[in-house]
Amino acid sequence: MKKLYKNIRQAQIIFNNSFLSEWKSVKNDKAVVSSFFMIAFVILAVYTYIYSNEVVTEIPTAIVDQDASQTSRTYINMLQSNSNLVTKNQFANFENAKKAYFKKEVMGLVLIPSNFENNIKQGKQTTIIAFADASNMIFYKNVLATVTQISSYFNAGIAIKKEMLKGSSLHSAKQNYNPIRSVSRSLFNTNSGYATYIMPIFISLVVQLIILLGVGILNGTRKENNKLHQNFYGVQKKGGTIPALFAKATLYILLFALILPLQIAIVHLLFNIPIRTSLISVLIFTLPYLSSVVFLGITISSLFKRREEAILFLVLLSLPALMLSGVSFPTESFPKLHQYLANLLPSTPGIKGFIKLTQLDASFSQLISQWKHLWILTFLYFITAAIIFKLQHFKAK
């Protein structure tokens, strides 16, 4: 019994000393403090402000009217009434419009062919040609979607007029043209805003990046100054590794229990991005996320002999983490190797769970698979961190 009490007391002392040592290192390192505040708050606020307009409107679009008829002018007026495009129809021919496009004066072209009105009156099919800049998917989508929508309305007007000329009433003509009425509604991200889509993802990635940077910079500094053993001398004692690791994880979890609500306030409240859950649920979900990231940071920190190496490596790691998270392309469509790599990063299940929780109004039971995934990663990286932590201190002895 005395031996058990002695071991518990020793673990408590090692935990307290390690916690205080890590806290002193964090608050006394200007690079870590600036990373925590500059990246977590200032950069996050700047990025959110950039995307705060949510949707792109008033895209400059050239219209080349080769028909110059009343019907073509009606079509142009319909295009001009849409807020997505700012139409410029002063181009006399297609070559001038192409020059404006390649100079980036316009982002799309709409060509109304000659005989546009005559073909419609004669019941012949005619074609509206739209060119959109596919190198920018937002411009491409808006130009193409707007022209398609206006063309659909224009076609409907022509078809309904023909039905009415045959003696049908306006109501029956509409029903004959469109017997099945479809209603489309955007769920959750109701205005299809880009900030509502990207910023919750960015918050999760920023949390991972900051923790990895903090752990990597501090470990690189200790190696440079040969203070690894001095800061965590309790690791050399039997059973000292586990309380020391828990102390480091506890410190970062407590720090981000304060930082994360402030990040959410900046992104969601200040810029009116919806959040559909409670802060308690967010903190419960992020517990294994923060733990797995801390232990991952300790695991890979053995690669760094200098603090600059940590900054360079971890900043470069943030881009693959973003790509592998499934933001730009579904993870289910990745090659098997990349799926395995994606599942090894805490940000992959972390982002998916965070979006479900804050944006999709999911209950905690609906994201239990991501929560379990994060706990598995926490256990995996705890083992690797414990081994590497022990080896580092053995070599530094």
List keywords for this structure.
elongated, single chain, abc type-2 transporter like fold, 67% helix, 4-stranded mixed sheet, 2 domains, 397 residues, mainly alpha
**What is the gyration radius calculated from CA atoms?**
30 Å
> What would you call the shape?
elongated
Order of helices and strands: HHEHEHEHEHHHHHHHHHH
- In which range does the helix fraction lie? 55-70%
Q: How many helices in DSSP terms?
A: 15
Structural class: mainly alpha
What is the makeup of the main sheet?
4 strands, mixed
How many individual domains? 2
Q: List the strand order in the largest sheet.
A: 2-1-3-4
Low-confidence stretches: none
Give the end-to-end Cα distance, rounded to a whole number of Å. 32 Å
- The number of strands is 4
Can you give a write-up of this model?
With 397 residues, the chain is mainly alpha-helical. The chain folds into two domains: 12-52 and 191-396, no CATH class; 59-177, abc type-2 transporter like fold (3-Layer(aba) Sandwich). It contains 15 helices and four strands. Helix 2 packs antiparallel against helix 8 (194-225), helix 2 (30-50) runs parallel beside helix 10 (241-269) and helix 14 runs antiparallel to helix 15 (368-396). The relative contact order is 0.11.
